[in-house]
Amino acid sequence: MSRTGKVFVGIDAGTTGCTVMIFDEKGNAVGHGYQEYNCSSPQPGWIEQSLDEVWAGICSATKQAVARADLPAEAYHSVGLSSQRGTFGLLDENRRPLMNSLVWNCGRALKSVEAISAEFGAAEHQTHTGMTISPLWSAAKIVWLRENRPDLFDATRWFVNGQEYFLWRMGADDWATDPASLTLNGMMDIAKLDWSDRILSACGIGRDRLPPVGTPATMAGRLSKAAAHETGLPEGVILCRGAGDQQCAAIGAGVIKQGMAEFTVGTSGVMVAHLDSVDRIKGNKLWWGGHGVPGAWDIEGGAFSLGASLRWWRDHLGRNELDDAARRKTSVYSVMVEQAHNSKPGANGAMFHSFMASQVTPYYDAVARGGFLGLGLYHERHDLIRALLEGCSHEMKMVFDSFQSDIEGGITDFRLTGGGTKSDGFVQIMTDVIGVPSTVTKERECTALGAAILGAFGSGAFSSIDEAVGAMVQVESTFEPNAKLGELYSEQHAIYRGIYEAIAKSGQYAALSDFSQKYQ
């Protein structure tokens, strides 16, 4: 890249850490930073996160990326932001957090969702909001606050998604959100791509306690002197709304036309397809919202514990892999994938259900939980790791199959993105289980790239999203499913799904949830 060319910063403030990347005009990464942070669980099923910790992570990761890029200040053109959806903060009148944010996968609102159900029938709710009724969406959690913490509910001046808060911390003066960031709130009138007054009424709040709904990929302000000091970016760089994390991932993967879809394998797994029109939707197993492309829609399904399941193994059972990775100076996840390939496809009959924080698409079962099944005394460590990777892939297949059945024309161009795709071995397992070819882009951190693309377009560096994507998204390779494993994985998938349905229909997930609450 020319030292005088423009560069675009993409910030992905995710659930377990912040990734910041700096890209040139062809989408080549010239700087990278990452800072991990934590969530807390004050009670079983409750997930919270400090907004201040996330802000510190954004600053640290940005400083790392700027230092590694080593570019003159005049090269920096824009910043685009991607943030978690369905995670919301409670701010006072000075926009200071009153408590930790409630994270998208927090399950505290199991009973409070009844206030939403009382206002809407299930079909009407999905038609109106694009979402199934669920305790995982922000609306139900706001009801929970009203019912269980009226002191905090009454003291809250602003209920905010992460993006507008962090842009404000950077110096933005346009206090607004956007439809692409509101998908997991369950609070939007999908036809209008705006707040739903009916949902807000059920929550007990008005529009005056929410940022107005703006447009993705638009300028929000310029970086302040204080934020320049904290992030290492030059003062005055253009700040742009990006979109929600999954819409950014879709943009970064080039998913901007009908028939295209991408599956991001990160802490959670979310599949996103472009929609020219909501009239193409044929079923009700998915949810839909605003795309990162202004004025367009997307349709989504999720598996909320994919990468989190691998991290759970790493943190609690993975001492062998951690030691091996440290000795070889490689990624612990690469070691895990190597170990998995010491086991045969099918993991010698071991199976892992990856519902560590609920099952989302297609069952929307908030009380479902994960587990290893079919274990025998003959199973070895590598069988369990293979079962872990295959189990995550089977949950992905449940999501993919919902897209094939619920969208007119189905999916004709399938792409895999996210940190989980950095291992070719894991990508091949995913491809074999899902059973269709999968394309991988050169830049696997598509969420950060998508945020940077939206910032580049929003700041005027490109005349359209199509032009920006055409210039900055590069396809690397396509993986073909192994035809010899088709029957094996088809049979395994039927068992995987059948066992889940048997446990769920018998009420045992609900009984276990009640038990854990009773004896927490």
From TrEMBL:
Pfam families associated with the record: FGGY_C, FGGY_N
Coiled coil residues, start to end: none
Keywords: Kinase, Transferase
Organism superkingdom: Bacteria
SUPFAM superfamilies documented for this protein: Actin-like ATPase domain
InterPro entries for the chain: ATPase_NBD, Carb_kinase_FGGY, Carb_kinase_FGGY_CS, FGGY_C, FGGY_Carb_Kinase, FGGY_N
Membership in a protein family: Belongs to the FGGY kinase family.
Domain Carbohydrate kinase FGGY C-terminal: 264-457
Keyword Cell cycle among record annotations: no
CDD domains reported for this sequence: ASKHA_NBD_FGGY_YgcE-like (cd07779)
Higher taxonomy: Bacteria, Pseudomonadati, Pseudomonadota, Alphaproteobacteria, Rhodobacterales
Record carries keyword Cytoplasm: no
Name this polypeptide is given: Xylulose kinase
Domain Carbohydrate kinase FGGY N-terminal intervals: 8-252
